[in-house]
Design a protein that fits this description.
There is one protein chain. The protein has a domain of about 230 residues: Amidase signature (AS) enzymes (Alpha-Beta Complex), CATH 3.90.1300.10. About 40% of the residues lie in helices and about 15% in strands. The protein is built from 17 helices and 13 strands. It has an eleven-stranded mixed sheet, with helices on both faces. The protein starts with a helix and ends with a helix. The structure holds glutamine (GLN). Glutamine binds next to loops.
Length: about 475
């Protein structure tokens, strides 16, 4: 119906569309498609009435007045879908876990407040891997989200629902969270744009924690400008999250952009030929646009996945301790305190969550803490330094987003390691706190050029707070 926020607002100014029209368009699509795709866990029943109320606010305004008004309400009437781990006061939020089945949020997350202040309308909450652990939404307690581009394939994860609502035209924009790739990987599998912002640039207040030193909220859209716009609104210091800071985006034209390619990391077994080709083609495309492309070497990159899967379960095991059946959500009542705790966690948490709790508890235990957690922490810092140094020579580091296209539902679920391997290119940005964007790849004919006709993504990573550079280069692609 509309291709981006800008077009929607231009139509609003010209009075050629109403907010109700747009919301109805998405609600209609949800009605027709969601049962099959399973991207939304819940559609909010107040979206339409809010749309009508917002239309009323514009009713007596002239086009010029609307134009002025929209400068102060940058997302006025824009439908937004939220991942099921982001809180809206008074609404259910469950992180797609049985343990939070009846949980109702008692406060607004900061991102929700900021979006609402700008006039956004929340359409519903989207399916995800339980507590954001996974890469296919197959770990959701409420079934997998199918890839709208081919229903036999996964939409990716953990923010699979937030990506699928965009590619299936069930929302204009959406938010997800990214701990190790959960925004970029599903964006790549769905052929859309999405940003994992710099750690601490977006408040985590009201986001259910997975791994606190990795987590960040970010936007999905079909249009790059929308991703940029939404990021601009949700970013910034928040007194309720002490890890936040301000990011200035300055879009000044640089005379010479340099892109670094960690060739030895990309051109290896385990990365599909189609993916390698997408990188070669993109390199050519960038060169034609006058971008300098250079090979770089960061030997520690190969260890990213190993470092990630030590540190993340450690943080997960600590964060998950709050789901004890006493504080939040469901409780299995056995009339015995300890037994309640065992039954609640035993019955209501899924296998991947338990796997990480066990792994993390082991990693943090007295005898192994130094051997695993401490060592991984040191390597994380070394990796950050190495990348920081390289980013003095190049503006961004380019890799594929994933080693292959999406995979068939059920294909990897019994092989945990193969699923973890799909994160090989994305986890680094979270380890080092830097921003990264996934841009859909198309060949020169504008096609996917993959055997299964599913999309691929190109990932760009820049230094801390350099989202503006990412947007500039992404635009060239
Ligand atoms: N797939 C990765 C994992 O399972 C990333 C998850 C995420 O970013 N939330 O840890």
């Amino acid at each position: 119906m509309v291709k981006n926020i800008n077009e929607f607002h231009t139509l609003l100014i010209d009075k050629k569309i109403t907010i109700t029209d747009l919301v109805n368009h998405y609600l209609e699509n949800i009605k027709n498609k969601n049962t099959e795709i399973n991207a939304y866990r819940e559609v909010f029943d107040d979206a339409l009435s809010i749309a009508k109320e917002y239309d009323k606010q514009l009713e007596n305004k002239t086009s010029d007045e609307i134009k002025e008004f929209l400068k102060t309400k940058k997302l006025f009437g824009v439908p937004v879908a939220l991942k099921d781990n982001i809180l809206i006061k008074g609404k259910r939020a469950g992180a797609s876990s049985k343990v939070l089945e009846n949980y109702i949020a008692s406060y607004d997350s900061t991102v929700v407040k900021k979006l609402r202040d700008q006039g956004a309308i929340f359409l519903g909450r989207t399916n995800m891997d339980e507590f954001a652990m996974g890469g296919s939404t197959e770990n959701s307690a409420y079934g997998v989200t199918k890839n709208p581009l081919n229903l036999e394939y996964v939409a990716g994860g953990s923010s699979g629902g937030s990506a699928a609502v965009i590619s299936s035209d069930m929302s204009l924009v959406s938010l997800g969270s990214d701990t190790g790739g959960s925004i970029r990987q599903p964006a790549s599998y769905n052929g859309i744009y999405a940003l994992k912002p710099t750690y601490g640039s977006v408040s985590r207040h009201g986001l259910m924690a997975m791994a606190s030193s990795f987590d960040v909220i970010g936007p999905f859209a079909k249009d790059m400008d929308d991703v940029c716009k939404v990021f601009d609104i949700i970013k910034g210091v928040d007194e309720l999250d002490s890890t936040t800071h301000d990011v200035n985006m300055i879009f000044s034209a640089k005379d010479k952009l340099r892109v670094g390619i960690p060739r030895e990391f990309i051109f290896t077994d385990g990365v599909s030929d189609e993916v390698k080709k997408s990188i070669e083609n993109t390199i050519e495309r960038l060169k034609q646009k006058g971008v300098e492309v250079v090979d770089i070497s960061i030997p520690l990159l190969k260890e990213s996945l190993a470092i990630y899967y030590i540190l993340v379960p450690a943080e997960v095991s600590s964060n998950m301790s709050r789901y004890d059946g006493i504080r939040y959500g469901k409780n299995i009542d056995t009339k015995n305190g300890i037994e309640d705790y065992l039954q609640t966690r035993g019955q209501l948490l899924g296998p991947e969550v338990k796997r990480r709790i066990i792994l993390g508890t082991y990693i943090l235990s007295a005898g192994y803490h130094d051997a695993y957690y401490k060592k991984a922490g040191i390597l994380r810092e070394n990796l950050r330094q190495d990348i920081k140094n390289k980013l003095k020579d190049v503006d961004v580091i380019m890799t594929p987003t994933t080693p292959d296209t999406s995979f068939k539902i059920g294909e990897k679920i019994t092989n945990t390691l193969s699923l973890y391997l799909a994160d090989i290119f994305t986890v680094t940005a979270n380890l080092v706190g830097m921003p990264a964007i996934s841009v859909p790849y198309k060949d020169d004919k504008g096609e996917n050029s993959t055997a299964n006709d599913l999309p691929l993504g190109i990932q760009l990573m820049a230094d801390t707070d350099k989202e503006d550079t990412l947007f500039s280069i992404a635009k060239m692609l």
